[in-house]
Amino acid sequence: MISINSTHSYPSTFLLLGVPGLEDFHIWIAFPFFIAYLIALVGNVTVLFVIKTEQSLHQPMFYFLALLSFFDLGLSTSTIPKMLAIFWFNHKAISFEGCLIQMFFIHSCTGMESDVLLAMAIDRFVAICYPLRYNTILTNKVVAIMASIVVGRPVLLVIPFCPLLKRLPFCEHYVIPHTYCEHMGIARLACASIRVNIIYGLFTIAALIFDLILIALSYVKILHAVFRLPSRDARLKALSTCGSHVCVILAFYTPAFFSFMTHRFGKNVPRYIHILLANLYVVVPPCLNPVIYGVRTKQIRDRVVRVFVKKE
Questions:
Q1: Which of 196, 247, 261, 281 is 20 to 30 A from residue 255's alpha carbon, by CA?
Q2: Helix, strand, coil percentages for the chain (3-state, nearest 5)
């Protein structure tokens, strides 16, 4: 069944195939994703709860961490439940509007995670390079402005995806060989030129690369400042404050890097490898981020321990 607008036609429903080539294993593939989703839910809700209730954590770095946890919940919830429905219940259908909504949240949350990692890098840069001016530089007003940019920029970048896709004719092509809807996966179904979509998609990827470049530059400055400290203990203490952030950066960008590389250059790589890597990209960071900060951040770890001790 096809829905018609004034100029073009597009399917009223898309079919998400899951992982083509591994259909017989869908029921088993779902279990690790289900466990990862549970970890992401419990972990990120715990981080948000601890930051809200622990007065000592009402600082810029932990405000940004709360945003990261919120975006992790958004990214995982916009993808994994539908993924599990495909794997376990063979519920492959998704409406055209539902597909666009899922795509919007996936790309928006991805951009927000990248932006909040940059904000956290700026926080570490100020804390290590200008420790005496930290509170005067990162005031509540500055943090609020940074948070607004973190949320607003990705949303503004992703909004054009919707009209760019709705303008395309799909000629009854409605099968998406994937577990979720993403911009180019939908655009490739069109029976018309998608050059504009490709160019704009590359522009949005460039925004993520720009974030990564700025993060790298901030750490160059941080390392330069750290190695000028007089004592080894001071250097180790300064570096330890960045450890969790570096781990989270690796958890976010590494799956994305491998997914991008196999997609662009792995022409002989089976399709199911591409899809599994793309799934890791939306599953691994939300699952690992709360674990990393929960283990490495003393205030969060101690607060969680106190809660369980009180319950006992």
A1: 196
A2: 75, 5, 20
Instruction: Report the C-alpha gap between 187 and 194 in whole angstroms.
Output: 7
- Reference 291, options 280, 282, 300, 302; nearest CA is 300
Tokens (6 digits) for 121? 């890098």
> In 10 A of CB 10, how many CB atoms?
25
Helix (H) / strand (E) element for 216: namely helix 195-226
Q: Residue 255: which residues within 8 A CB-CB, separation 6 or more?
A: 277, 280, 281, 284, 285
Q: Which tens digits make up the pLDDT trace of 194-203?
A: 999 999 999 9
Residue type at position 128 = I
Contact 249, 288 (CB under 8 A): no
Q: Which residue has the tokens 């994305």?
A: 256
Q: How sure is the predictor about 125, in pLDDT bands with cuts at 50, 70 and 90?
A: very high
Which residue matches tokens 């399917």?
A: 11
Check whether 8 has a pLDDT greater than 60. no
Q: Which of 229, 217, 244, 230 minimizes the C-alpha distance to 61?
A: 244
